[in-house]
Amino acid sequence: MKAMAVEDPQGAPPATGGHVSAPREVAASRCFLAVYLGRLRGAGETGPPALALSLDLLPTFVFSTGIMLLLAVVDEYGLGQYGLQLYLPSFWASCALTVCLITAPGAQPKSLLGAHLLAALFGVCFGHATGSLAQPIGQLLAGAFAVALLTPACLLFGWLQPSSSATAVLAVFHKQGRMHDAGYIFLVTPVLLGGLIVFACSWLMNNLIPWRPSYPLCW
Question: pLDDT tens digits, residue range 53-75?
Answer without folding.
Answer: 888 999 999 999 999 999 999 99
